[in-house]
């Protein structure tokens, strides 16, 4: 496993020291989980959820409770401007 | 009696008798926390003023009228901080709404009071991964309280809470309950709403009670359980009167002992306590049957693929954009993501996100994730077959008593392997409870040992009934 490549996919910057520590730990963990390769899973259906899960559909109307005002929705944002979340410039 | 020493049941009785009031109980809890929690670190914060305001108009006739309940730091309570014990959110987030479990607690008259410590984003088995402060076992401050709901277990054990909510993805309610000597119940997947819980692994997470007695766990579960229109995985099945189940004895019940759970690696003293509790159940008329869960040895590997895969997706939301930590040095979009996540997440959270990203990545999905999901089916089928033979399964919760702080923190795999007895229940979606079954003396300290009882889906009444019998044998 190429830790740097995976870290880029996960959008986490790693220090050299952290990348090195993780590399060793991942090799150990992946070696351990490779025991699953010995199991015959031919014809076995995968389980995504232990209980049968069905789509639950309700009318497409806003619930009267739990509506956040713009102010409430922005309250936890790291940076705001003009009632919006502020981000560094994306387009050149 | 100091109101913080009450159970839910005895506190309700004291309210009815006029011996104390919700306001007095809250103030007394706050005093106990200030006095005792400095050494333990079970609480990240509490807000007495908010709780006292909640107590003002509380209806004492309700099932939990006036009862303070400590809340694990990943459950949203409107107006309270919610940090998941992570620098990503600490001091940067106040919940804009109540989780369904909090709405249900409030509707039953309970008062959310105090945010309990945990492993960051519920990832860990020792509470050593808290990004905010360490948490210690009240029975021996050199030892871990367990995790991830370590704070919730510790504060109930230390009498700095009457009861608490925890969450359990791979044992995170049951294992700390066992190490701290309290009762902890992980409900059947879907029995309790997950709406408003910060998700770790969505197909495994469940919220449940951590209490001083089995009766309290039953009462709290009656309030928490039930359908929720905001969680499509929440089951629309009727909720039992769990307290009624406690009146039944165990005579005639078939209790299975999985031979794989009593094999190599189990501490001798833990085994002794667990076997004594099982013999006592037998003397009360339960029939003990040896069973087999043959895929047990694959559970840890399966779990750490599925849980990390789900975590990598769930934690993508912490990107420094809408809430939580944003790196001050970030000057473009990519560095907002990468630097905020580097600075905000601790080592274990990064490890799991990276592992999860890897097992889901192109070229590895089938080999790891899809294969693990198939083995999950085999693990689930083990339990289906077992519950055709027996009513309840009994086992240890953890292979050893609480270990020392630092003992396993440098070796993630050793830490994962200690979850061997608890994680299968999450993979199979069944319910489980840890109930104290004695203590074992280690280094001159008496360390609690828990007995795990596993039940079939929606079989909470059965495990509570057996747990109650175990509890009675202890007193």
What would you note in describing this structure?
- The complex is a heterodimer of chains A (92) and B (475).
- Chain A is mainly alpha-helical.
- Chain A has a domain at 1-38: Orthogonal Bundle (Histone, subunit A).
- In chain A, 33% of the residues lie in helices and 4% in strands.
- In chain A, strand 1 and strand 2 (84-85) form a beta hairpin.
- The longest helix of chain A is centred in the N-terminal third of the chain and has 18 residues, at 16-33.
- In chain A, 14% of the residues are buried.
- By secondary structure, chain B is of the alpha/beta class.
- Chain B has three domains: 3-245, Amidase signature (AS) enzymes (Alpha-Beta Complex); 254-296 and 375-460, no CATH class; 301-366, no CATH class.
- Chain B has an eleven-stranded mixed sheet.
- Chain B is globular.
- Chain B starts with 7 loop residues before the first helix and ends with a helix.
- The model of chain B has no long low-confidence stretch (mean pLDDT 96).
- At the A-B interface, helix 1 and helix 2 of A face helix 10, helix 11, helix 12, helix 13 and helix 14 of B.
């Amino acid at each position: 496993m190429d830790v740097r490549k995976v870290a880029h996919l996960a959008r986490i910057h790693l220090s050299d020291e952290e990348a090195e520590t993780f590399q060793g730990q991942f090799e150990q963990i992946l070696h351990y989980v490779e025991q699953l390769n010995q199991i015959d899973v031919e014809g076995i259906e995968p389980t995504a959820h232990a209980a049968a899960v069905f789509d639950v559909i309700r009318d497409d109307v806003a619930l009267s409770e739990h509506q956040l005002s713009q102010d409430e929705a922005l309250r936890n944002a790291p940076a705001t401007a003009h009632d919006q979340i502020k981000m560094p410039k994306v387009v050149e | 009696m100091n109101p913080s020493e009450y159970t839910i049941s005895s506190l309700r009785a004291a309210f009815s008798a006029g011996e104390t009031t919700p306001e007095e109980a809250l103030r007394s809890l706050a005093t106990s926390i200030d006095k005792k929690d400095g050494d333990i670190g079970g609480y990240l914060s509490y807000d007495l003023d908010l709780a006292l305001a909640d107590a003002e108009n509380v209806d004492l006739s309700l099932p939990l009228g006036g009862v303070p309940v400590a809340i694990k730091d990943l459950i949203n309570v409107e107006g309270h901080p919610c940090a998941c014990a992570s620098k990503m959110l600490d001091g940067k987030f106040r919940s804009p709404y109540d989780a369904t479990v909090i709405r249900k607690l409030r509707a039953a008259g309970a008062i959310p009071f105090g945010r309990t410590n945990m492993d960051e984003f519920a990832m860990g088995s020792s509470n050593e991964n808290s990004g905010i402060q360490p948490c210690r076992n009240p029975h021996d401050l050199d030892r871990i309280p367990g995790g991830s709901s370590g704070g919730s277990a510790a504060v109930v054990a230390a009498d700095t809470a009457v009861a608490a909510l925890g969450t359990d993805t791979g044992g995170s309610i049951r294992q700390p309950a066992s190490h701290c000597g309290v009762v902890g119940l992980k409900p059947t997947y879907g029995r309790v709403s997950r709406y408003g819980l910060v998700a770790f692994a969505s197909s495994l997470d469940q919220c449940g009670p951590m209490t001083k007695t089995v009766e309290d766990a039953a009462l709290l579960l009656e309030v928490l359980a039930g359908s929720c229109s905001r969680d499509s995985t929440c089951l629309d099945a009727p909720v039992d009167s769990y307290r009624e189940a406690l009146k039944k004895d165990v005579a005639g019940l078939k209790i299975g002992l999985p031979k794989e759970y009593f094999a190599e690696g189990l501490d001798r003293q833990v085994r002794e306590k667990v076997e004594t509790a099982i013999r006592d159940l037998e003397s009360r008329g339960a029939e003990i049957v040896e069973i087999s869960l043959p895929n047990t040895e694959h559970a840890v590997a399966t779990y750490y693929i599925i849980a990390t895969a789900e975590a990598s997706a769930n934690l993508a939301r912490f990107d420094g954009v809408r809430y939580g930590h944003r790196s001050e040095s970030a000057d473009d979009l990519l560095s907002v993501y990468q630097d905020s996540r580097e600075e905000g997440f601790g080592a274990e959270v990064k490890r799991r996100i990276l592992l999860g990203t890897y097992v889901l990545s192109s070229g590895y999905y089938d080999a790891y994730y899809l294969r693990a999901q198939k083995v999950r089916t085999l693990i689930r089928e083990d339990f289906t077959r077992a519950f055709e033979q027996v009513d309840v399964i009994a086992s240890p919760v953890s292979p050893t008593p609480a270990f020392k702080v630092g003992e396993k923190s440098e070796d993630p795999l050793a830490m994962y392997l200690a979850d061997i007895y608890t994680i299968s229940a999450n993979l199979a979606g069944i319910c489980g409870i840890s109930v104290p079954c004695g203590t074992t003396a280690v280094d001159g300290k008496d360390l609690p040992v828990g007995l795990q009882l596993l039940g079939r889906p929606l079989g909470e009444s059965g495990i509570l009934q057996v747990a109650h019998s175990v509890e009675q044998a202890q007193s």
